[in-house]
Design brief:
single chain; about 200 residues; alpha+beta; OB fold (Dihydrolipoamide Acetyltransferase, E2P); DNA polymerase, domain 1; Helicase, Ruva Protein, domain 3; five-stranded antiparallel beta sheet; ATP binding
Length: about 200
Amino acid sequence: MLDYINGKVMQKGLGYVVAECNNIGYKLLVSQNTSYELNLDQINIIYTHLVVKEDAISLIGFSSITERDMFELLISISKIGAKTALSILSVYTPSDVAKFIKSSDIVSLSKISGLGKKTAERLILELKDKIDMFVNTDDVVLKPNNPVSSIDNSVTDEAAEALMMLGFTAKESQNAVQKAYDIKQSEDVQDIIKTALSLLKK
């Protein structure tokens, strides 16, 4: 079984990347977060999962083993296929998903395109006791003395969520919000969003 590809990312598209390994180009379907993590024109390790259907064979790529593990857990649930699982992981990190499941946050999960309330409820019911390993595994790690650690979480969450609604990935949004707060030292959500947007557009 193909576990990973160690190759050069030659192309990035909407929902996919093309990686070259041993003169063979592999097209991999990816989440927005993985696409953001992979470096174009550089050698990357891309972890893989092969999806075999009657009418198609798809290779899914991940920037981390943690994201792949969460993907495989998600598709084990009835009504959640590869497309929906990638949509979830495009908006939220594995740690975010685990937190929402653990806290039975149906509202946050239902925001994902293709994931209705009933499916979100089933996801929570079936995975609540299986996701402890994913909690606190965010890629974004705050430094102990970083001022953002003392800001009201509701402010940063609201600002990051607004950026994600504009199409930015969870990691892009969180990083931009953190930098915006460092610059502005403000707890005004709109002020943080404006500064974060200016940083993302650079």
